[in-house]
């Protein structure tokens, strides 16, 4: 098929902030950025090629004030604008914050529209800090559940795990920049995988096949140092505190892409796949690809995506 058309969609305040960070970089491939919010101020701050002000006649461009029903109605009022903006797209990577109006109201309304268009969605959502109160955490749970009901794969990024992942010495701005940087690295690794021809190739349809397994998802990227064991890297990725999931072993599908130099051995490739299969015994689909790099100056890397994870405990 022709090069896949990918949209990075930021919804609400956190989504717009993430696009502002991503705007500092050049993303390869056929990628567009779209921001959607009831707040005109949030859209002005977002670095996006296309901006959709949701329900101006209802919210007046002043935001939704945490009111999820207002955000949902505003999104439905802007349905035509959203459909025109997102039409002719092969994949949407959505970024949103949970616990407020856009997370529970706007984001699920948009993924419902995308499901009607049969456009696959991988959503990255950030959950509130515990100190923000029971109400916001309940709204966050409801928002994630609503996204899952629309059939998309959802990666949960818990704000409460920032200290565990980064250390207490980080400033708040550095911590949020770290989350944005994680998103950027994942997007770059994904786009690189889709654009490069590998020795054992993984293409766009392989990726879509994995994220079509509805449920929570875990995604991670890591460099390979000379002393690293790839199974140990996988273990760190599966247990990354920035990617919260208590039941990763229940994943139904996984995609694993390795980039390495020409000395990479068959036994390493087999050992990596075997280790992943042991960690996710419920998986009915594991796709593993390999790209050999002739440039010895570039470090090897591991990209992991596991989808279709069931959860039975609160996420927030």
Automatic annotation (TrEMBL):
<protein>
    <recommendedName>
        <fullName>Tubulin/FtsZ GTPase domain-containing protein</fullName>
    </recommendedName>
</protein>
<dbReference type="InterPro" id="IPR003008">
    <property type="entry name" value="Tubulin_FtsZ_GTPase"/>
</dbReference>
<feature type="domain" description="Tubulin/FtsZ GTPase">
    <location>
        <begin position="5"/>
        <end position="198"/>
    </location>
</feature>
<dbReference type="Pfam" id="PF00091">
    <property type="entry name" value="Tubulin"/>
</dbReference>
<keyword id="KW-0547">Nucleotide-binding</keyword>
<dbReference type="InterPro" id="IPR008280">
    <property type="entry name" value="Tub_FtsZ_C"/>
</dbReference>
<dbReference type="InterPro" id="IPR036525">
    <property type="entry name" value="Tubulin/FtsZ_GTPase_sf"/>
</dbReference>
<keyword id="KW-0342">GTP-binding</keyword>
<dbReference type="InterPro" id="IPR045061">
    <property type="entry name" value="FtsZ/CetZ"/>
</dbReference>
């Amino acid at each position: 098929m022709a090069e896949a058309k990918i949209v990075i969609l930021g919804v609400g305040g956190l989504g717009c902030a993430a696009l502002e960070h991503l705007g500092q970089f050049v993303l390869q491939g056929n990628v567009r950025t779209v921001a959607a919010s009831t707040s005109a101020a949030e859209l002005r701050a977002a670095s996006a090629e296309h901006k959709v002000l949701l329900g101006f006649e209802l919210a007046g461009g002043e935001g939704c004030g945490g009111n999820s029903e207002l955000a949902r109605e505003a999104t439905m009022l802007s349905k035509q604008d959203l459909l025109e903006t997102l039409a002719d797209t092969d994949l949407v990577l959505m970024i949103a914050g949970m616990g407020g109006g856009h997370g529970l109201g706007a984001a699920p309304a948009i993924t419902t529209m995308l499901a009607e268009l049969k456009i696959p969605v991988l959503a990255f959502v950030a959950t509130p800090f515990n100190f923000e109160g029971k109400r916001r955490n309940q709204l966050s749970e409801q928002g994630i559940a609503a996204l899952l009901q629309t059939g998309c794969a959802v990666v949960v990024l818990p704000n409460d795990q920032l200290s565990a992942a980064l250390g207490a010495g980080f400033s708040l701005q550095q911590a949020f920049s770290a989350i944005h940087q994680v998103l950027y690295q994942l997007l770059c690794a994904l786009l690189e995988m889709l654009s490069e021809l590998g020795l054992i190739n993984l293409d766009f349809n392989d990726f879509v096949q994995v994220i079509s397994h509805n449920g929570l998802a875990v995604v991670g990227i890591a460099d390979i140092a000379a002393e690293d064991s790839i199974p140990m890297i996988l273990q760190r990725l599966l247990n990354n505190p920035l990617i919260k999931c208590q039941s990763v072993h229940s994943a139904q599908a996984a995609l694993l892409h390795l980039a390495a130099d020409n000395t990479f051995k068959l036994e390493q490739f087999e050992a990596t796949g075997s280790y992943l299969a042991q960690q996710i015994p419920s998986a009915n689909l594991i796709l593993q690809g390999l790209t050999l790099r002739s440039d010895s100056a570039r470090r090897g890397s591991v990209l992991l995506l596991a989808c279709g994870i069931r959860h039975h405990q609160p996420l927030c």
